[in-house]
What we know:
Elements: E1 11-12, E2 14-17, H1 21-28, E3 35-38, H2 45-52, H3 54-62, E4 70-75, E5 82-83, E6 94-99, H4 101-111, E7 119-126, H5 127-130, H6 134-137, E8 148-154, E9 157-162, E10 167-174, E11 177-182, H7 220-226, E12 228-232, E13 237-240, E14 245-250, E15 255-262, H8 272-282, H9 288-303, H10 327-341
Parallel strand pairs: 1-12, 2-3, 5-9
Antiparallel strand pairs: 3-13, 4-6, 4-7, 7-8, 8-15, 9-14, 10-13, 10-15, 11-12, 11-14
Helix pairs in contact: 2-3
Amino acid sequence: xxxxxxxxxxxxxxxxxxxxxxxxxxxxxxxxxxxxxxxxxxxxxxxxxxxxxxxxxxxxxxxxxxxxxxxxxxxxxxxxxxxxxxxxxxxxxxxxxxxxxxxxxxxxxxxxxxxxxxxxxxxxxxxxxxxxxxxxxxxxxxxxxxxxxxxxxxxxxxxxxxxxxxxxxxxxxxxxxxxxxxxxxxxxxxxxxxxxxxxxxxxxxxxxxxxxxxxxxxxxxxxxxxxxxxxxxxxxxxxxxxxxxxxxxxxxxxxxxxxxxxxxxxxxxxxxxxxxxxxxxxxxxxxxxxxxxxxxxxxxxxxxxxxxxxxxxxxxxxxxxxxxxxxxxxxxxxxxxxxxxxx
Length: 343
């Protein structure tokens, strides 16, 4: 069998030092590529506790815990922390279950003593529900944006490349993390696995960037040429724009990440991935000529949309074509679409 291809060197995400919070907010307002803000959250009490020791970071976190069970993953030692599918892609390579956070932290301390530790991982968990009060001194004030703030923790882990709809400010509070990021247009070179059946519920790349098999996944070489890498120490913050694919490797015995997610559009406009699912239902099986005709329609009304192109329609008569779509017209459109999907 041909050996896996070596990992190529990728460009680094631009790193900015000594930025204030206001300077960071101004920069990400228009940023279209990832940015690292060195040490931006290094003053957090959680970061400072982790710099002293993993045990002190765990003790600091535990004081906020109110007993809500958390979802935790156990990855057998032979998988080296990779949270992934089984070999036939009809199941996963980990066990998941609800656990008391204090028990989870005890397990992490025990695994740190093992020669070949099992992977112990808690994925995206809303901070206010799990650890109320932690975010007061350990989150970013993004006002007027009100982000969803989540916490992730565990020992060494590897999370397959996936994307998120919201923008993300990922704060590396404890330990070390390496992000490998791919622009949205690289989706065709990432070999995405089954939709709607993936670890964590997010579609993922089937390629392991640490050991890419270019015989099986040849186009991944082009993805790596376009990739960016960010090495995060405790206190560093990474801005991930919406829809950028990212593989995440945590390398310390104890790692904590706090993320801030937000969207550019109001909730009443719905989730764009629902439109993708509807398109798969109604367009994907059409003959190629018809798909191309619908592509022209989508380009005209959606992707290349220019408000000036509607100048021939009186503004009061534009209805669902109004830009930006207001809540009243959005609700009418949603109701009409819901009724049509029932037929």
